[in-house]
């Protein structure tokens, strides 16, 4: 065992190298942060030969958890969040010589080696705060030699080997420690609701098939049975449940009945057709949606992150949804005064606007409306100020208009050879709009060239209203506004027969229920790219629990000051060359500085490489918009940090990349939930990708090298091989040794229909 004091910041490279030489997988993390910015970091394996390249500059390092070493053990971190848990840890946890923390929280991380799959699990108290957390597969922990976001250095308390313990014993010890600190174990789950839910879907499928035509020999009987089997899988039934449905259908709807072997063949054909065509529709029961992963809240500006955490603690809504809603409001406060550009020709002549289109996906009663109202409330003082100003100007206008009418009726003005200029009504100042038609939106933008925020309480009604009032598509006009393009409306009547907006900047915050979103998840809206432009966020819904916590007034004041400061930013006017009149507002463009440009290029290349290899055309559209959103996030973050900024810096771009990567994963998750398809990086998606490739190539198996070529998120053959081994472990196929055509040994993966985990 080696006892050591904390090494200086300049020695962090050697600290990291020592851990790497001891067999631990490390990944680089930006200095002073805890969240990796490298996309696909979970699959990154940095060996000694590549260590200098990844850790050439001062940075933090995270150790990958849950990975099996040469002896079959996986590394687990017990993260002690509550000070009381740190004090009681020695009484409950097994001793280990791999312990560290920071100055204010020593001994807060304790590492062990166990056998088995370890998934992360937090133990929380009644106040919702985490007491202790088991950290395992798919996670990482910042190690000594790094600098914590608080500014403290992460340092060793004991730099030795992690103790080997039984997973069951470790889990029990952590539970006892959590209970000693106030954690209450959840009540035993009742299996009956799950069984009842399954039976409900089976009965729904039967009721549906009862209404379909019978299977009659010589009258399309074969197709009828095949369709019935397909419907069973479209309802999301298991193989056993689908077999029960087919048996029932055969006995009650087939004339004459088919034999058992023929029914088995039709079930196999149906399953292949449905899964191969990704034909799981709205009838599939839930269960395929990946788990919710909160966004890295510390990547947001300080005022937004602070307020989002406080609101989440007060209401129970996840802080991610709050932070993105507040970011959208901040973007609307900036409006047409600023725009962003990574390079000269990016985003057109006017640059990328700061407008965010945020849609919160939660069921009724989950407090969507209070959250949206809360976010919009920081713009309401300015909105009221604009409306009050318009009222005063209208009183003056009405007086001048009355004088004009009186002068028209009098001959005195004409006798003197003078004509009074007809007064024009003042522009109707407005900042927040509710659900409205596109024509009304254009009128408001005509009077408010800086831009507005669209506050949609119920997104389903807003989407349904498209194309209701005009013959031409309102959707296409909204698509133009996403990039702040110009819009024109020509009318047959009215004083303003032609409304022209040079740069239509509109932000959006709205809410929609999952069922309503699923109904609008139609080919029309997916193909035209409308849904791809929405930042869809679907946080978990928690039971309402009374909390005595309140939002600190100081946090509210800081947020209001931030919004007011962003509103005070001024752009430049757009002058009509013919009339000389001001027709709009021209934004001041902020480009990326050299350090920011370097980070941006790495992100853009990695993101577009992943986009290039996507086979899902609908998800490709969402991926394509995420890159554009990264510029918007960077612009907003930079102006929140420094309203006088002339360029966008590396810190803002790095934080924006973190949020953009999170939005990419959340888009995959929401799309999977809405369509019943697995997420793009799930086991199901990888297995399906392999089957399609093998069918196209006419091969029975795939090698790690070939798999890394069709799944570009794996940077090396070693990463691809690990994924194939995990696919075999999860029951999607067999991983084995093989010989190449030239007689050389290699490894390969042969898929089959999933039959359950091979470890069971």
Q: Would you kindly provide a written description of the structure presented here, covering whatever features stand out?
A:
- The protein has 760 residues and is an alpha/beta fold.
- The chain folds into four domains: 9-180, Prim-pol fold; 196-276, no CATH class; 297-379 and 431-675, Rossmann fold, CATH 3.40.50; 683-751, Arc Repressor Mutant, subunit A.
- 44% of the residues lie in helices and 16% in strands.
- The chain has 25 helices and 26 strands.
- The strands form eight sheets. Strands 3, 4, 5, 6, 7, 9 and 10 form a seven-stranded mixed sheet that branches. A five-stranded parallel sheet has the order 15-16-19-14-20, sandwiched between helices. The protein has a three-stranded antiparallel sheet with strand order 1-2-8, with helices on one face.
- Strand 17 and strand 18 (498-501) form a beta hairpin.
- Helix 7 packs across helix 8 (260-276) and helix 10 (319-334) packs parallel to helix 11.
- The longest helix is centred in the middle third of the chain and has 30 residues, at 380-409.
- The radius of gyration is 30 Å and the shape is globular.
- The two termini are 38 Å apart.
- Residues 1-10, 188-195, 276-288, 467-473 and 754-760 have low confidence and may be disordered.
């Amino acid at each position: 065992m080696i006892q050591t004091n904390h090494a200086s910041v300049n020695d962090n490279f050697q600290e990291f190298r020592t851990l790497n030489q001891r067999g631990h997988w490390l990944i680089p993390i930006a200095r002073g942060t805890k969240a990796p910015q490298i996309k696909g970091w979970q699959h990154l394996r940095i060996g000694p030969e590549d260590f200098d390249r990844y850790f050439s500059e001062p940075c933090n390092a995270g150790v990958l958890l849950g990975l099996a070493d040469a002896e079959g053990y996986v590394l687990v971190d017990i993260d002690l969040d509550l000070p009381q848990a740190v004090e009681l840890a020695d009484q409950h946890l097994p001793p280990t010589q791999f312990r560290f923390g920071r100055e204010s929280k020593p001994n807060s991380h304790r590492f062990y080696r166990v056998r088995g799959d370890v998934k992360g699990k937090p133990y929380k108290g009644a106040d919702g705060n985490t007491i202790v957390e088991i950290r395992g597969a798919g996670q990482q922990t910042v190690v000594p030699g790094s600098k914590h976001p608080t500014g403290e250095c992460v340092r060793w308390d004991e730099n030795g080997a992690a103790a080997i313990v039984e997973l069951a014993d470790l889990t029990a010890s952590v539970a006892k420690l959590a209970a000693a600190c106030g954690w209450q174990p959840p009540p035993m789950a009742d299996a009956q609701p799950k069984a009842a839910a399954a039976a409900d879907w089976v009965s729904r499928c039967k009721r549906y098939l009862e209404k379909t035509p019978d299977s009659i020999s010589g009258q399309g009987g074969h197709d009828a049975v095949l369709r019935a089997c397909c419907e069973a899988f479209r309802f999301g039934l298991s193989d056993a449940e689908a077999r029960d449905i087919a048996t029932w259908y055969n006995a009650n709807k087939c004339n004459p009945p088919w034999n058992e072997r023929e029914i088995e063949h039709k079930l196999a054909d149906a399953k292949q057709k449905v899964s191969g065509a990704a034909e799981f529709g709205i009838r599939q029961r839930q269960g395929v949606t990946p788990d919710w992963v909160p966004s890295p809240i510390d990547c947001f500006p300080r005022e937004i992150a602070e307020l989002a955490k406080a609101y989440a603690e007060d209401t129970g809504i996840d802080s991610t949804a709050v932070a993105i809603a507040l970011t959208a409001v901040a973007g609307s406060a900036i409006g047409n005064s600023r725009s962003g550009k990574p390079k000269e020709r990016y985003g057109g002549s006017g640059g990328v606007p700061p407008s965010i289109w945020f849609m919160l996906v939660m069921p009724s009663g989950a407090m969507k409306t209070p959250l949206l109202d809360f976010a919009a409330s920081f713009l309401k003082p300015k909105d009221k100020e604009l409306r009050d100003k318009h009222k005063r100007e209208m009183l003056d206008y009405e007086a001048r208009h009355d004088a004009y009418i009186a002068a028209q009726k009098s001959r005195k003005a004409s006798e003197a050879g003078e004509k009074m200029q007809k007064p024009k009504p003042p522009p109707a100042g407005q900042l927040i709009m509710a659900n409205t038609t596109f024509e009304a939106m254009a009128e408001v933008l005509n009077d408010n060239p800086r831009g507005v925020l669209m506050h949609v309480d119920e997104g389903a009604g807003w989407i349904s209203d498209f194309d209701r009032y005009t013959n031409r598509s309102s959707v296409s006009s909204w698509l133009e506004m996403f990039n702040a393009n110009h819009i024109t409306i020509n009318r047959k009547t009215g004083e303003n027969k032609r409304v022209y907006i040079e740069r239509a900047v509109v932000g959006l915050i709205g809410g929609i229920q999952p069922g309503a979103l699923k109904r609008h998840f139609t080919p029309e809206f997916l193909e035209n790219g409308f849904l791809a432009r929405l930042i869809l966020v679907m946080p978990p819904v928690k039971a309402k629990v009374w909390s005595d916590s309140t939002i600190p007034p100081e946090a509210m004041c800081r947020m209001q000051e931030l919004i007011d400061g962003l509103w005070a930013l001024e752009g430049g006017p757009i002058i009509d060359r013919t009339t000389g009149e001001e027709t709009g507002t021209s934004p001041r463009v902020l480009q990326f500085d050299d350090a920011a440009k370097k980070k941006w290029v790495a992100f853009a290349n990695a993101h577009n490489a992943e986009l290039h290899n996507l086979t899902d055309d609908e998800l490709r559209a969402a991926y394509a918009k995420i890159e554009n959103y990264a510029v918007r996030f960077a612009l907003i973050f930079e102006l929140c940090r420094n309203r006088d900024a002339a360029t966008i810096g590396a810190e803002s771009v790095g934080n924006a990349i973190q949020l953009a990567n999170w939005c990419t994963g959340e888009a995959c998750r929401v799309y999977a939930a809405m369509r019943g398809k697995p997420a793009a990086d799930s086991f199901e998606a990888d297995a399906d990708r392999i089957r399609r490739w093998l069918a196209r190539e006419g091969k029975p198996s795939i090698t790690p090298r070939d798999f890394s070529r069709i799944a570009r998120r794996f940077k090396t053959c070693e990463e691809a091989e690990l994924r194939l081994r995990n696919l075999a472990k999860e029951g999607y196929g067999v991983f084995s040794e093989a010989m190449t055509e030239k007689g050389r040994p290699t490894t390969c993966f042969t898929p089959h229909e999933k039959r359950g985990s091979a470890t069971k």
